[in-house]
Design goal:
Length: about 160
């Protein structure tokens, strides 16, 4: 009786097909990871807005910080961020921070603020990520740092 088995050529063809399919699958997963990082950025901004709301409840005003580190210091000094807790940084680069822009009325009182992150996915590719996004500073407000929110990857929230 003759045993039936795969030849070396048949095994090579099967491995080649599996390799091609795996390559296509991994290539397509790259878009999902960028989208996941963008979702995290949006979640981070919403969490920071909760910290700032807590700050407002404790002090009666919004932080006057003009950069991320000063914002963190003000939140810690007010007791909003506990020991060992810090504000989140961008998931793809720990050195890249989000932006905080305090917005004042003509009287100089901080009545609103803008939180900004730069996303990897433009609005044309994933419009569902952009719920609540603003594209410019509303009239009547002056925001320190002159936030630019009109780029395809800029994600700004006004509070």
């Amino acid at each position: 009786m003759k045993k039936k088995a795969f030849t070396l050529v048949e095994l090579a063809v099967v491995l080649l097909v599996i390799g091609i399919l795996a390559g296509l699958l991994l290539r397509n997963l790259g878009g999902f990871t960028a989208s996941a990082r963008d979702q995290r950025r949006i979640g981070d901004l919403r969490n920071v807005s909760a910290y700032i709301t807590n700050y407002y409840a404790r002090t009666g005003q919004y932080p006057t910080a003009t950069d991320w580190s000063t914002l963190e210091t003000q939140l810690k000094n007010a007791g909003v961020l506990g020991p060992g807790v810090s504000l989140p940084n961008d998931p793809s680069s720990p050195n890249q921070k989000y932006n905080y822009y305090p917005c004042k009325t003509s009287a100089g009182v901080v009545v609103n603020y803008i939180l900004k992150a730069v996303l990897e996915t433009p609005i044309t590719q994933a419009p569902t990520l952009y719920q609540g996004r603003i594209t410019g500073v509303p009239t009547g407000l002056t925001c320190e740092g002159s936030p630019s929110c009109n780029g395809d990857n800029d994600y700004c929230l006004l509070f």
